[in-house]
Design a protein that fits this description.
By secondary structure, the chain is an alpha/beta fold. It has a single domain, classed as Rossmann fold (3-Layer(aba) Sandwich), CATH 3.40.50.1820. Helix content is 35%, strand content 14%. It is globular, with a radius of gyration of 17 Å. GO terms for molecular function: hydrolase activity. This is Oleoyl-ACP hydrolase. Belongs to the thioesterase family. Keywords: Hydrolase.
Length: 247
Amino acid sequence: MRRFQPTPEAPVRLVCLPHAGGSAASYAPLARALAPVADVLAIQYPGRQDRRAEPGITRLTDLADLVADALAPWADRPFVVFGHSMGALLGYEVTVRLEAAGIAPRALVASGRRAPSRHRAESVHLRNEEGVVAELRRLGGVDPAFLDDPELRAMILPAVRGDYEAIETYRHTPRPPLRTPVTVLTGDNDPQVTAEEAAAWAEHTTHAFALRTFKGGHFYLNEHLPEVQAVLRGLLSEGEVSRRPGP
Protein backbone atom coordinates (compact mmCIF):
# COMPACT_ATOMS: atom_id res chain seq x y z
CA MET A 1 0.00 0.00 0.00
CA ARG A 2 1.40 3.40 -0.99
CA ARG A 3 0.11 6.72 0.37
CA PHE A 4 1.63 9.62 -1.55
CA GLN A 5 -0.47 12.22 0.30
CA PRO A 6 -1.45 10.69 3.64
CA THR A 7 -4.74 12.20 4.79
CA PRO A 8 -5.67 10.28 7.95
CA GLU A 9 -8.41 12.76 8.85
CA ALA A 10 -10.31 12.20 5.57
CA PRO A 11 -13.76 10.60 6.04
CA VAL A 12 -13.38 8.30 3.03
CA ARG A 13 -10.66 6.42 1.17
CA LEU A 14 -9.95 5.87 -2.51
CA VAL A 15 -8.20 2.60 -3.40
CA CYS A 16 -6.35 2.77 -6.75
CA LEU A 17 -5.32 -0.23 -8.84
CA PRO A 18 -2.80 0.33 -11.68
CA HIS A 19 -2.95 -0.82 -15.29
CA ALA A 20 -0.80 -3.63 -16.73
CA GLY A 21 2.86 -2.73 -16.29
CA GLY A 22 1.86 0.28 -14.20
CA SER A 23 2.89 1.19 -10.69
CA ALA A 24 1.40 2.87 -7.66
CA ALA A 25 3.33 6.04 -8.51
CA SER A 26 0.99 6.72 -11.43
CA TYR A 27 -1.64 7.71 -8.85
CA ALA A 28 0.52 10.21 -6.97
CA PRO A 29 -1.03 13.23 -8.81
CA LEU A 30 -4.51 11.94 -8.02
CA ALA A 31 -3.63 11.57 -4.34
CA ARG A 32 -2.49 15.19 -4.20
CA ALA A 33 -5.55 16.42 -6.10
CA LEU A 34 -8.08 14.64 -3.87
CA ALA A 35 -6.56 15.57 -0.52
CA PRO A 36 -8.12 16.37 1.92
CA VAL A 37 -11.38 14.95 0.50
CA ALA A 38 -10.02 11.40 0.52
CA ASP A 39 -7.11 9.36 1.79
CA VAL A 40 -5.78 7.79 -1.42
CA LEU A 41 -4.25 4.31 -1.22
CA ALA A 42 -2.39 3.01 -4.29
CA ILE A 43 -1.59 -0.68 -4.62
CA GLN A 44 1.98 -1.55 -5.64
CA TYR A 45 1.99 -4.90 -7.43
CA PRO A 46 5.11 -7.07 -7.04
CA GLY A 47 7.68 -7.05 -9.82
CA ARG A 48 8.08 -3.27 -10.30
CA GLN A 49 9.83 -0.23 -8.82
CA ASP A 50 10.61 -0.85 -5.15
CA ARG A 51 9.18 -4.40 -5.47
CA ARG A 52 11.10 -5.23 -8.66
CA ALA A 53 13.06 -8.04 -7.00
CA GLU A 54 9.83 -9.89 -6.14
CA PRO A 55 8.32 -12.32 -8.65
CA GLY A 56 5.24 -11.05 -10.42
CA ILE A 57 1.83 -12.67 -10.03
CA THR A 58 0.50 -14.09 -13.27
CA ARG A 59 -2.97 -15.18 -12.13
CA LEU A 60 -5.41 -12.34 -11.66
CA THR A 61 -7.47 -14.24 -9.11
CA ASP A 62 -4.39 -14.85 -6.96
CA LEU A 63 -3.59 -11.15 -7.07
CA ALA A 64 -7.21 -10.34 -6.15
CA ASP A 65 -6.95 -12.60 -3.08
CA LEU A 66 -3.83 -10.76 -1.90
CA VAL A 67 -5.20 -7.28 -2.56
CA ALA A 68 -8.47 -8.02 -0.76
CA ASP A 69 -6.53 -9.29 2.27
CA ALA A 70 -4.29 -6.21 2.22
CA LEU A 71 -7.30 -3.89 2.09
CA ALA A 72 -9.19 -5.41 5.00
CA PRO A 73 -7.33 -3.42 7.71
CA TRP A 74 -8.09 -0.18 5.81
CA ALA A 75 -11.85 -0.73 5.74
CA ASP A 76 -12.40 1.24 8.95
CA ARG A 77 -14.18 3.92 6.93
CA PRO A 78 -16.10 4.08 3.62
CA PHE A 79 -13.99 3.60 0.52
CA VAL A 80 -14.24 3.57 -3.27
CA VAL A 81 -12.25 1.21 -5.52
CA PHE A 82 -10.84 2.71 -8.74
CA GLY A 83 -8.93 0.72 -11.34
CA HIS A 84 -7.76 1.43 -14.86
CA SER A 85 -7.48 -1.29 -17.54
CA MET A 86 -6.09 -4.36 -15.75
CA GLY A 87 -6.85 -2.49 -12.53
CA ALA A 88 -10.56 -2.34 -13.42
CA LEU A 89 -10.78 -6.09 -13.89
CA LEU A 90 -8.79 -6.63 -10.71
CA GLY A 91 -11.06 -4.16 -8.92
CA TYR A 92 -14.08 -6.26 -9.88
CA GLU A 93 -12.55 -9.45 -8.49
CA VAL A 94 -11.40 -7.64 -5.34
CA THR A 95 -14.91 -6.23 -4.83
CA VAL A 96 -16.37 -9.75 -5.12
CA ARG A 97 -14.10 -10.82 -2.28
CA LEU A 98 -14.75 -7.75 -0.15
CA GLU A 99 -18.51 -8.19 -0.47
CA ALA A 100 -18.14 -11.81 0.65
CA ALA A 101 -16.18 -10.58 3.68
CA GLY A 102 -18.86 -8.03 4.56
CA ILE A 103 -16.70 -4.97 3.79
CA ALA A 104 -18.07 -3.87 0.42
CA PRO A 105 -16.81 -0.58 -1.07
CA ARG A 106 -19.08 2.41 -1.56
CA ALA A 107 -18.55 2.10 -5.32
CA LEU A 108 -16.41 0.41 -7.96
CA VAL A 109 -15.06 2.67 -10.72
CA ALA A 110 -13.93 0.64 -13.75
CA SER A 111 -11.87 2.62 -16.26
CA GLY A 112 -10.62 1.55 -19.69
CA ARG A 113 -11.72 -2.08 -19.52
CA ARG A 114 -14.50 -4.14 -21.02
CA ALA A 115 -16.90 -5.97 -18.70
CA PRO A 116 -15.50 -9.13 -17.06
CA SER A 117 -17.96 -11.30 -19.00
CA ARG A 118 -16.79 -9.95 -22.37
CA HIS A 119 -13.81 -12.11 -23.25
CA ARG A 120 -11.41 -11.58 -26.15
CA ALA A 121 -8.82 -14.14 -27.20
CA GLU A 122 -5.51 -12.27 -26.79
CA SER A 123 -1.91 -13.47 -26.45
CA VAL A 124 0.36 -10.46 -26.06
CA HIS A 125 2.16 -12.21 -23.20
CA LEU A 126 3.32 -14.91 -25.64
CA ARG A 127 4.92 -12.46 -28.08
CA ASN A 128 8.63 -11.79 -28.33
CA GLU A 129 10.06 -8.58 -26.90
CA GLU A 130 9.38 -6.52 -30.02
CA GLY A 131 5.82 -7.79 -30.13
CA VAL A 132 5.14 -6.70 -26.56
CA VAL A 133 6.73 -3.30 -27.21
CA ALA A 134 4.57 -2.88 -30.33
CA GLU A 135 1.44 -3.38 -28.23
CA LEU A 136 2.59 -0.81 -25.68
CA ARG A 137 3.23 1.70 -28.46
CA ARG A 138 -0.21 0.99 -29.92
CA LEU A 139 -2.01 1.73 -26.67
CA GLY A 140 0.19 4.60 -25.50
CA GLY A 141 0.55 5.41 -21.82
CA VAL A 142 4.26 4.45 -21.64
CA ASP A 143 6.96 7.08 -22.05
CA PRO A 144 8.62 6.33 -25.43
CA ALA A 145 11.98 6.87 -23.75
CA PHE A 146 11.44 3.65 -21.79
CA LEU A 147 10.62 1.73 -24.95
CA ASP A 148 13.48 3.16 -27.00
CA ASP A 149 16.19 2.51 -24.42
CA PRO A 150 17.13 -1.21 -24.26
CA GLU A 151 18.17 -1.06 -20.61
CA LEU A 152 15.05 0.78 -19.47
CA ARG A 153 12.63 -1.45 -21.32
CA ALA A 154 14.43 -4.53 -20.00
CA MET A 155 13.51 -3.25 -16.55
CA ILE A 156 9.79 -2.88 -17.26
CA LEU A 157 9.01 -5.69 -19.72
CA PRO A 158 8.99 -8.58 -17.21
CA ALA A 159 6.25 -6.87 -15.19
CA VAL A 160 4.34 -5.97 -18.36
CA ARG A 161 4.48 -9.53 -19.68
CA GLY A 162 3.40 -10.97 -16.33
CA ASP A 163 0.47 -8.58 -16.08
CA TYR A 164 -0.64 -9.37 -19.63
CA GLU A 165 -0.54 -13.06 -18.78
CA ALA A 166 -2.74 -12.39 -15.76
CA ILE A 167 -5.43 -10.57 -17.74
CA GLU A 168 -5.25 -12.70 -20.89
CA THR A 169 -5.62 -16.00 -19.03
CA TYR A 170 -8.45 -14.65 -16.84
CA ARG A 171 -11.87 -16.18 -17.36
CA HIS A 172 -14.94 -14.76 -15.70
CA THR A 173 -16.73 -17.16 -13.40
CA PRO A 174 -20.53 -16.79 -13.65
CA ARG A 175 -21.78 -15.54 -10.30
CA PRO A 176 -24.49 -13.27 -8.90
CA PRO A 177 -23.99 -9.57 -9.76
CA LEU A 178 -22.28 -7.24 -7.31
CA ARG A 179 -24.35 -5.35 -4.77
CA THR A 180 -21.89 -2.48 -5.14
CA PRO A 181 -22.67 0.47 -7.48
CA VAL A 182 -20.51 0.49 -10.61
CA THR A 183 -19.35 3.51 -12.59
CA VAL A 184 -17.59 2.89 -15.90
CA LEU A 185 -15.26 5.38 -17.57
CA THR A 186 -14.11 4.77 -21.14
CA GLY A 187 -12.54 6.46 -24.16
CA ASP A 188 -14.58 6.65 -27.35
CA ASN A 189 -11.58 5.53 -29.42
CA ASP A 190 -10.20 2.82 -27.14
CA PRO A 191 -9.17 -0.21 -29.23
CA GLN A 192 -9.54 -2.40 -26.14
CA VAL A 193 -13.15 -1.50 -25.31
CA THR A 194 -16.19 -1.12 -27.56
CA ALA A 195 -19.26 0.83 -26.47
CA GLU A 196 -21.15 -2.45 -26.01
CA GLU A 197 -18.35 -4.00 -23.96
CA ALA A 198 -18.29 -0.95 -21.67
CA ALA A 199 -22.08 -0.91 -21.26
CA ALA A 200 -22.04 -4.63 -20.40
CA TRP A 201 -20.68 -3.75 -16.95
CA ALA A 202 -24.32 -3.02 -16.06
CA GLU A 203 -24.89 -6.78 -16.01
CA HIS A 204 -22.43 -7.08 -13.13
CA THR A 205 -24.30 -5.04 -10.52
CA THR A 206 -27.78 -4.99 -9.02
CA HIS A 207 -27.16 -1.47 -7.70
CA ALA A 208 -26.70 1.84 -9.49
CA PHE A 209 -24.81 1.89 -12.77
CA ALA A 210 -23.35 4.83 -14.68
CA LEU A 211 -21.31 5.05 -17.88
CA ARG A 212 -19.21 8.07 -18.83
CA THR A 213 -17.51 8.25 -22.24
CA PHE A 214 -14.61 10.61 -22.93
CA LYS A 215 -12.85 11.61 -26.11
CA GLY A 216 -9.65 9.62 -26.47
CA GLY A 217 -8.06 6.19 -26.57
CA HIS A 218 -7.03 3.66 -23.97
CA PHE A 219 -5.32 6.28 -21.82
CA TYR A 220 -8.02 8.92 -22.31
CA LEU A 221 -7.66 9.86 -18.63
CA ASN A 222 -4.28 11.52 -19.28
CA GLU A 223 -6.12 14.24 -21.21
CA HIS A 224 -9.22 14.29 -18.99
CA LEU A 225 -7.76 14.07 -15.50
CA PRO A 226 -9.81 17.02 -14.11
CA GLU A 227 -13.06 15.42 -15.30
CA VAL A 228 -12.06 12.04 -13.89
CA GLN A 229 -11.21 13.69 -10.59
CA ALA A 230 -14.65 15.33 -10.59
CA VAL A 231 -16.35 11.95 -11.06
CA LEU A 232 -14.35 10.48 -8.20
CA ARG A 233 -15.03 13.46 -5.93
CA GLY A 234 -18.75 12.96 -6.50
CA LEU A 235 -18.61 9.28 -5.61
CA LEU A 236 -16.48 9.98 -2.56
CA SER A 237 -18.90 12.60 -1.27
CA GLU A 238 -21.24 11.57 1.50
CA GLY A 239 -24.54 10.26 0.16
CA GLU A 240 -23.65 10.69 -3.52
CA VAL A 241 -24.19 7.03 -4.31
CA SER A 242 -27.61 6.86 -2.71
CA ARG A 243 -28.82 9.70 -4.97
CA ARG A 244 -27.74 8.04 -8.20
CA PRO A 245 -30.40 6.41 -10.38
CA GLY A 246 -30.51 2.66 -10.86
CA PRO A 247 -29.55 0.88 -14.09
